[in-house]
Write a structure and sequence with these properties.
- Helix 7 packs parallel to helix 8.
- The longest helix has 16 residues.
- By secondary structure, this protein is α/β, with parallel strands linked by helices.
- The chain has one domain: Alpha-Beta Barrel (TIM Barrel), CATH 3.20.20.
- The site of SN-glycerol-1-phosphate (1GP) has 14 residues, from strand 8.
Length: 232
């Protein structure tokens, strides 16, 4: 159920406090250097997101557990599949890939996770997940077998995000894909922000403070940075 961690995001949005999540892909994470990794991430980081396209359950549980041991930041699961759902985390971003038309990633994976989710303590936040063209073939596109939405199709992106909100999503995640060459444009972020009332997450290809601040200025409530902090 939506709870404390979601309330904190909504409060930050209302107060204009910008949030920063560092994304950790367990497959590319060296647990031996966890303290150094945590020392190297920006001090303004507010969340740790954990997940990837292909990680196994044991691997993600181990990484979440060690992060919880060394950090006070809340750990949000950002799963690529239902195998990655682990009670070791605080929150599950319950993603539905609304930009695509593959039923497996719209509802199939969610059905597979449902029975497990009923019996654990994870806070679950329904999240409308939109893959937007980042100028490369992203892992999300490959794994899901869906195409990214073209950046020029702003109104289609806005309407997709709005449909997600109307279906009950509590967050919208505008995703250009890990390692994107082109980040989600300010025009898209601001159009989505103006239309929706739920918090807006933006990620994919954000490597610099300038890019991060541009996303915030356009209306992102939470920015996700992953690749730039990898500690393989
Ligand atoms: C990917 O949005 C995230 O799912 C982060 O992307 O790895 O490019 O920072 P990067």
């Amino acid at each position: 159920m939506v709870g404390l961690f979601y309330s904190e995001i909504v409060s930050a949005m209302k107060n204009g406090d910008k949030l920063l999540a560092i994304l950790i892909d367990p497959e590319k994470f060296n647990t031996q250097t966890t303290p150094q990794f945590l020392n190297n991430i920006p001090t303004e980081a507010t969340h740790l997101f954990v997940g990837g396209s292909t990680d196994a359950h044991e691997q993600i549980t181990e990484v979440v557990t060690i992060l919880k041991k060394h950090s006070r930041l809340p750990v949000f699961l950002f799963p690529g599949s239902y195998h990655q759902v682990t009670e070791a985390a605080d929150v599950l971003l319950f993603l539905s890939l609304h930009s695509g038309r593959n039923p497996e990633y719209l509802i199939g994976q969610q059905v597979k996770a449902a029975a497990f989710l009923k019996h654990n303590s994870l806070e679950i936040i329904p999240t409308s997940y939109l893959l937007i063209d980042g100028g490369h073939t992203s892992a999300v596109a490959s794994v899901s077998g869906t195409a990214a939405m073209a950046q020029e199709r702003v109104s289609e992106i806005v309407n997709t995000a709005l449909a997600g909100q109307l279906m009950g999503a509590q967050l919208v995640y505008l995703e250009a894909g890990s390692g994107a060459k082109t980040t989600v444009s300010q025009a898209i972020i601001s159009a989505v922000k103006e239309t929706l009332s739920i918090p807006v997450i933006v990620g994919g290809g954000i490597r610099t403070s300038i890019q991060k601040e541009q996303a915030y200025a356009a209306g992102a409530d939470l920015v996700v940075m992953g690749t730039v902090f990898e500690n393989r």
